[in-house]
């Protein structure tokens, strides 16, 4: 039974990872979270993650991943690179090469030290902007690789993998966390908590999903 086991949630303090945290708290006996500091554009992301972990009473690990900033210049690590959608089949400027590969791998190392065999991540192939490291096939491949590399039996959970943003809001609501997620998470590429700037791609996706879910809920 999962209720008797322990999980580590890859946690940014955003909508998706916070929804996954609430999901994990319902599924597992013990939950810890890990946030990665890669000198991202908005250090407020880390403060937001700290505050949420503290409020929910979960142990919070912050790991230094500044090397990723050196390796992968992009709109999330450089102020002089514009946040924009991909054009002509290109990836968005917010894609950080290797991010989920490194984050989940290091989360696995941490999990092995704290006695957890479950890893939870908010990656999603439905509203994923084309990021290759959000695909289900990548997660399954990485799960096998992690288990082989450490001779263990990790299970990577992706509660949002096949949900669009409206369904992610629905899941938060079902977990009695919709208002918490709406008011206390940071998804905005411009570093504004809650509903954000309302203009960046991340805010537009979040807002569209929320409006769709709320209109559906009102119709019931």
TrEMBL record:
Cofactor(s) for this UniProt protein: Zn(2+)
Highest taxon of source: Bacteria
Co-factor binding details: Binds 1 zinc ion per subunit.
Keywords: ATP-binding, Ligase, Metal-binding, Nucleotide-binding, Queuosine biosynthesis, Zinc
Biological process, per Gene Ontology: tRNA queuosine(34) biosynthetic process
Swiss-Prot/TrEMBL catalytic activity: 7-carboxy-7-carbaguanine + NH4(+) + 2 ATP = 7-cyano-7-carbaguanine + 2 AMP + 2 diphosphate + 2 H(+)
GO terms assigned for molecular function: ATP binding; ligase activity, forming carbon-nitrogen bonds; zinc ion binding
HAMAP family: QueC
Function: Catalyzes the ATP-dependent conversion of 7-carboxy-7-deazaguanine (CDG) to 7-cyano-7-deazaguanine (preQ(0)).
Similarity comment: family membership: Belongs to the QueC family.
Quaternary structure note: Homodimer.
Protein name stated in the entry: 7-cyano-7-deazaguanine synthase
Gene field: queC
